[in-house]
Amino acid sequence: MNPTSDVVAQLSGAVKRYGQLTALDGVDLVLHRGELLAVLGPNGAGKSTSISLLLGLIRPDGGRAELFGLDPQQIDARRRIGVMLQSAVLPPSLRVGELLRLVASYYPNPRPLDESAHLAGIADLLKRPYGKLSGGQMRRVQFALALCGRPELVFLDEPTVGMDIDARQKLWAAMRALVAEGCSVVLTTHYLEEAEALAQRVVVMAKGRVLSEGSVDALRAQVPLTRIRCVTDLDAAKVAAWPQVSSVEREGARLLVSTDAAENVLRRLLDADLALRELEVQRAGLAEAFMELTREERGIEQEAA
Ligand SMILES: Nc1ncnc2c1ncn2[C@@H]1O[C@H](COP(=O)(O)OP(=O)(O)OP(=O)(O)O)[C@@H](O)[C@H]1O
């Protein structure tokens, strides 16, 4: 890697096998300085395996993993990162403040404890033993531990699982603050609205491969659908048979229509039901793009299950 390049982490043609199973099948992934990259994909897509390679927790069977241009197992690379994994196990009897002090001591230039606590929203938890915290509070402490060393790159593996709406919003704000400082973030999440709200770039994986990669807008543009919602008595099956209608669902009194020709379908809906009301028209989001991009892979998985 070129030392002046803004690439902070990279997988090149990474292959990882577990016996017969190919968990990663030639994955290329690049993370630039100061960007938040969301790695999305159905269960078993290879997201955690990709992160484990970049962290040096496992070795590739083919291709390469690099952190700051170095082998991820080198201490000089590892000192520059912070990590929040799904499977964090921490000593339950240590108080939160003690944990923060301990982890910060591994880093050459850590944040002051109060700053880490404030960023992660755990200032009121510092004296509590870790093992006595709720699941959501533990996640916030793990987030504080990931950022307390003032890392240049943070890996967050499904960080907001188990958090209430308030805690999730605070964590989003903290992630934005990290990125504003110039920190790079790799985020895996199953909450597509999280990726939509935070990510500069999104990678969609399935079955150990990268299916698609780009900005949230670019991914959305791959699926040029509009969502129409309205209250109507029109028959869902009949509307589904109209030209340019992709799908129709009924939710009680409401009809949800997806189409790539919103104006034409809207005209026809209004003509067909003069009593139609509570009309909403919205561009399809990342969720629809994700479902469309991974349709085949999810279909195969469902058949196999
Ligand atoms: N240590 C292991 N031994 C055997 N198979 C493994 C191991 N780790 C991962 N796998 C397999 O590799 C594939 C990719 O797993 P991975 O955990 O990377 O997926 P993921 O995208 O993170 O999924 P999830 O969204 O469920 O966390 C899966 O089929 C998984 O069962």
UniProtKB/TrEMBL annotation:
One MF annotation (Gene Ontology) recorded for this entry: ATP binding
Keywords from the named record: ATP-binding, Coiled coil, Nucleotide-binding, Transport
ABC transporter domain segment(s): 9-232
PROSITE patterns in the cross-refs: ABC_TRANSPORTER_1 (PS00211), ABC_TRANSPORTER_2 (PS50893)
Xref: CDD domains: ABC_DR_subfamily_A
SUPFAM superfamilies membership: P-loop containing nucleoside triphosphate hydrolases
Signal peptide start-end: none
Sections of the chain in a coiled coil: 262-296
InterPro entries, sorted: AAA+_ATPase (IPR003593), ABC_transporter-like_ATP-bd (IPR003439), ABC_transporter-like_CS (IPR017871), ABC_transporter_ATP-binding (IPR050763), DrrA1/2-like_C (IPR025302), P-loop_NTPase (IPR027417)
Keyword Protein transport: no
PANTHER family per UniProt: ABC TRANSPORTER ATP-BINDING PROTEIN
UniProt protein name: ABC transporter ATP-binding protein
Organism: Dyella mobilis
Lineage: Bacteria, Pseudomonadati, Pseudomonadota, Gammaproteobacteria, Lysobacterales
